[in-house]
Amino acid sequence: MADNDAPIRATDNDAAIARLSAVQKGYLVDPYIATLVPRAHLQQPRPPLINIGTYLRSRGIDDLLDAWFRLAGGRKVQIVSLGAGSDTRFWRLASGTHAEQLHKYIELDFAENTSRKAMSIRKSKVLSAALGSPDAVSVGGGGTTLRSPVYNLLPVDLRTPPVVSLEPLLASGDEPLLSPSLPTLLLFECVLAYMAPSASNALVQWFVDYFGSPGSSGLLGAVVYEMFKLGDAFGRVMLNNLKSRGVSLPGAEAYPDIASLSRRFLDLGFTAAQALTLREIRSRYVGPQELRRLSRLEMLDEVEELELVLDHYCHFVGRSDVWGLVTKDQVG
Ligand code: SAM
């Protein structure tokens, strides 16, 4: 039987290889990513344009998460990463200044990807060490699920109705895995486009309802990194490039312009939203010293193409209820 989802799952490889390339070239610091990239792809440098895009993508999300921790005050927080792939953010947070504030970090992806990641984690002393005592770590579901006191990796097809797919977030002994009473951030890094808008709407709505119900924290935030404007000439080139690799993007038309991302979350019950292109983030929030450092890392010939690419990706931040919207000086 044809596996139509294989090209979608494989986009995770692209993301991980791009990240490793940006690390090897000195754009980013990430001691964990090499452990999660298959050995055959360890030496696949990406062009400067991709390295810069990866830097802005990663840096923007890191800064938004940092702001989220600060806005939560001294409270413990939960992060749910949807379509997490080989992301290393949990390990970077666990070794950073917000480690103590992290109550749960839950990653969801297709079973094939979670089992690959669970295996890599178990094989790596460094990745395993961050999960705590080995006695408190368990692998289940035929190797597709990994649970530990903070970090949890679960196999989920996010297109399945959330009442079914997100059930594991509720059931875990006496307490739900995802507490309704703690500030919680949803992270959608390059995943919404792979899902039909009806499916991702249902997903976001599930979280809005869960955290908006009486007795819950009422504190739900979202950080999204997404392609948009795929209907224009350059967007169509990006779309065709993905299509030629068998990747379909049923969610792509949901974001004809940057405002559509905010509109969509506001329609789903978010109370505030803001989106910025990577180009805006680079020009407004990356300081001159850092820009100089980046410009010395590699020669960039395709300046116009870079600006076009950066114009088609954006970071979005939104809150439901009382989470204060991230302000300019808290980003970048
Ligand atoms: N978020 C990671 C990052 O940015 O490094 C990975 C991004 S990768 C482009 C997209 C990820 O979303 C893949 O790991 C893919 O398997 C996952 N994904 C896409 N559709 C999904 C679905 N319906 N259910 C679960 N995971 C999905």
TrEMBL record:
- EC number(s) recorded for this UniProt protein: 2.1.1.233
Q: InterPro entries recorded for this chain?
A: LCMT1 (IPR016651), Ppm1/Ppm2/Tcmp (IPR007213), SAM-dependent_MTases_sf (IPR029063)
This protein's source sits in the domain of life called Eukaryota
One Gene Ontology BP term is: methylation
Q: Which key words are in the record?
A: Methyltransferase, S-adenosyl-L-methionine, Transferase
Instruction: Fetch the SUPFAM superfamilies from UniProt.
Output: S-adenosyl-L-methionine-dependent methyltransferases
Molecular-function annotations in GO: protein C-terminal leucine carboxyl O-methyltransferase activity
Residue positions annotated to bind S-adenosyl-L-methionine are 57, 83, 157-158, 189
Spell out the reaction equation it catalyses. Answer: [phosphatase 2A protein]-C-terminal L-leucine + S-adenosyl-L-methionine = [phosphatase 2A protein]-C-terminal L-leucine methyl ester + S-adenosyl-L-homocysteine
Record's keyword annotation contains Methyltransferase: yes
Q: Which family does it belong to?
A: Belongs to the methyltransferase superfamily. LCMT family.
Task of the protein: Methylates the carboxyl group of the C-terminal leucine residue of protein phosphatase 2A catalytic subunits to form alpha-leucine ester residues.
- Descriptive protein name: Leucine carboxyl methyltransferase 1
> Per the UniProt entry, what species is this protein from, by scientific name?
Lactarius akahatsu
